Amino acid sequence: MAKGTVLIVDDEPDVRASISIALTNDGYDVIEAEEGEQALEALDSGQTIDLILCDMYMPNVNGLEAVTLFRSSYQSIPVIVLTGKPDAQYAKRLFEQGVSVYLVKPLEQEALLATVHKVLQGKPKS
Q1: Which of 22, 46, 74, 81 is the most buried (most CB within 10 A)?
Q2: Which of 79, 83, 106 is nearest to 18 (CA)?
Q3: Residue 110 Ramachandran class (φ > 0 left, ψ -120 to 50 alpha, else beta)
Q4: Residues spanned by the domain of 88
């Protein structure tokens, strides 16, 4: 049985693949989306998603816009933000939107897995 389902939202295929492999090898089910609109389609599909990992800088719907949309319809799903361009003001706005954690890429696999596990352990059971 899987530990949970994680939605990875990142426009970089190599980043999505490396995160997906790490999570899958650690016992999670993974759904991938390359931008915010695809992520919303996955969320709207009715499949249970326990956690969202979302990049900040993507085409079309950027990370802040995506997080705003996630929070408006899916408040109970925790969001971990990933960024290659850390920005304190941006991070503050994300935390105000209800983001659980703000991680800077490149990610160390052990740190990512520990963060995912910790966030999911703190999530109320639905």
Answers
A1: 81
A2: 106
A3: alpha
A4: 5-121
Residue 36 is encoded by which pair of tokens?
């915010």
pLDDT in tens, 7-44: 999 999 999 999 999 999 999 999 999 988 899 899 99
3-state DSSP: the chain helix, strand, coil percent, rounded to 5?
Answer: 45, 20, 35
Structurally, the chain folds into a number of domains equal to: 1
Which residue's entry shows tokens 């999570």? 23
Q: Which helix (H) or strand (E) holds 81?
A: strand 79-83
pLDDT tens-digit readout, 57-87: 887 777 788 888 888 889 999 999 988 888 8
In-domain check, residue 77: yes
For residue 126, being part of any structural domain is answered with no
- For residue 13, tell me if it sits in a domain: yes
